[in-house]
Predict the 3D structure of the following.
Amino acid sequence: RERVMRVSVLDYGAGNVRSLVNALNMLGCEVDYVTTAEEIDAAPALIFPGVGAFGSCMEVLEERGYMEALQRYVRADRPYLGICLGMQTLFEASEESPGVRGLGLIPGTVGRFSPGVGHSVPQIGWNGLRLQKESALLGGLSDDDAVYFVHSFRVAPDPALAEWPLTCTDYGEGYVSSVSRGRVAAVQFHPEKSGPVGLTILSNWLKMSLDGAAPAPVVAAPAGRTAATRYCKRVVAALDVRANDAGDLVVTKGDQYDVREKSEGGAVRNLGKPVALAKRYYDEGADEICFLNITGFRDCPLTDMPMTQMIADASRRIFVPLTVGGGIRAFTDSNGVSSTALQVADAYFRSGADKVSIGSDAVDAARAYIASGVADGTTSIETISRKYGRQACVVSIDPKRQWVNSAADADGHALVDHSSPDRGVRGPAGQALCWYECTVQGGRAGSGLDVIQVCTAVEALGAGELLLNCIDCDGQNAGFDTALVASVRASVSIPVVASSGAGKPEHFADVFEASGTEAALAASIFHRKQVSIGEVKTLLAGRGVNVRAAAAAAAACAEAAAADAVAKRPRNS
């Protein structure tokens, strides 16, 4: 009878643990959740996945009596894997939470990335690994493989770390991206979100920890790999999800936000089932999947929200980051039960989402912040980023061009000049100047605020990423509004995702080259198979834009059958 692999996972209540459990389940491993210090002591192998703030995490570990048990476990050289914050807590302290002590198992203090030209903070996206020593954990990987990072703080190289560093990564500066000693390992990246490469790493760790059959080790060059790793621009597949007239969830796409067919009857445009399409994009090499809820489901109890059920299903099959947008705000359901924006976000994170995207609620928060100059701690952006970290909080903005004849007509709003030949758009009377008004209510109403006002305000409130959906370009397939994206990218220090307008692979290269944005998103051209994700990445690579190779992601197809088979198995709840 085949022995069942079992590991213990420490879930301290913040972040997407569901995706890690799904990845372990897919690899044939069952999971026990740690709820007491005694269960840490008894764990055959322990994984600590962490996101959010260092101080909040350490406070929970202290309150639950986990700190001493974790220290005993690691010092005894028992099988341990820390992920993201689960790596940072091994150190003595973090600049994120001055005065808060870490587990103190590795010397040093975790520091913040320094914002600089060409890179934003947090680092959100795919990057490589420079091996520092022989490692079975990374067996089967090559120098060209990339893994998924999402963090604002990092461990700087230091001789005091002695034999601990396993890999380093470059992002404006070199930093330690994983550590190992004996049977203890920890990684700054998220293997459960790193596609087939990440699943290989998890599989290696399970074999080393539970089977005692270590994979063939990867051997570092005598002085480690000297070539710097390269951050990869992200190609994101977006799915606008709503209920059709029969109440079924479908993927749709609008023409300047109109999602109904022009024919008689005007049915909701149906481009496929959300999870099936998302799985296809994962197999093709999408770096991230973004589900945008354009229905709202305001009458549904939070415990029975169709979107949370869909995300749970997607996270069992897809092992790259999942973002959910739409409806992330306070509401009262048909039973009279009220939920805060944070509680809505909690439900999505528990279902398997990695990030949530806030829309009109963010414009309201920006307006209040601009008026008072004070962040009062109560907005949805602040409450979500405080619990889960700013990297988990995206703000989606729907700007629309407002053309003016001269700067004097703009009432002080930030202007963009479209007079250069490469931008090629003009106003109805031939104007070359415009400002971008942030709209609300799905583009149906203006806010009176310009895009730079809103973007800088939400960054100050704690947003970690911006999603720019230019209404004028939506559904036109004529290219991204590169002038808009460049103006926002130059005004903030957080990552920006360009959206709306992609019609061919060249449009992705154009926006990356013209704006320096970190990611670009498309929907309908992928849904209708006009362009594949592989074609986009091939074109980008040919133009010198660094991307995660679609060929590496194609390995996902090889494990698709196994994933689908395991999906039918009972899982840990």
Remarks:
- The two ends are 25 Å apart (CA to CA).
- Confidence is low (pLDDT under 50) at residues 552-571.
- The longest helix spans residues 195-211.
